[in-house]
Design a protein that fits this description.
Layout lengths: L4 E3 L4 E11 L4 E6 L12 E6 L2 E13 L2 E6 L5 H5 L5 E5 L13 H4 L3 E4 L4 E10 L4 E6 L3 E5 L6 E5 L4 E4 L6
Parallel strand pairs: 8-13
Antiparallel strand pairs: 1-2, 2-3, 2-7, 3-6, 4-5, 4-7, 5-6, 8-9, 9-10, 10-11, 12-13
């Protein structure tokens, strides 16, 4: 399950960005970071970036529109009101995410974990992850940057959230 960014100080998770206008009745185009994209509509209470802070917003309606997502927020009833929200990030509280299924992880829970080979060699910490067509990839920063496929059972042997460690089968020279 993919949820990209978190701010540990606020307990908020950025789940998307308002990317455009849709029609004249206040609908917005949203670039969703959730997987699948339409999952962003399932979070009915949003926080929208507002000049260094966050303001609450409620989703009135939303759906897939072509390859993207469109959303109608309560109180945003015309194109002018919608235009004021362009380019702003969308966040939800971490507790709104629930818990991932066993063996699945939210990206935000992996960020900052130490990465160690099965031989005990420290490679660095997970800076962030990104998706490719084949699998997710961890960007591990240590004495140098490494891109390690997040493939459980192959490259990723163990994820211990309690200890803050991901054990990988990876050649440290690669």
């Amino acid at each position: 399950m993919t949820v990209p960014m978190t701010d540990a100080g606020t307990g908020l998770v950025t789940v998307g960005r308002i990317s455009g206008l849709y029609g004249v009745r206040g609908w917005l185009r949203v670039f969703s970071y959730t997987e699948p994209r339409e999952n962003i509509v399932g979070y009915k209470s949003w926080l929208i970036e507002n000049d260094g802070g966050w303001r609450p917003a409620e989703v009135d309606a939303g759906r897939m529109q072509g390859k993207g997502v469109v959303v109608k927020l309560k109180g945003c009833d015309d194109r002018d009101a919608a235009a004021q929200l362009l380019g702003r990030d969308i966040a939800v509280r971490r507790d709104q995410l629930g818990e991932p299924d066993p063996g699945e992880y939210f990206w935000l829970d992996l960020q900052g974990l130490r990465v160690v080979t099965i031989a005990g060699v420290e490679l660095g910490v997970v800076d962030h992850l990104f998706a490719t067509g084949a699998n997710d990839v961890m960007v591990v920063r240590g004495e140098r940057e490494r891109l390690i496929p997040f493939v459980q059972g192959e490259m990723v042997r163990n994820v211990d959230l309690q200890r803050g460690v991901i054990e990988v089968d990876w050649d440290p020279d690669f």
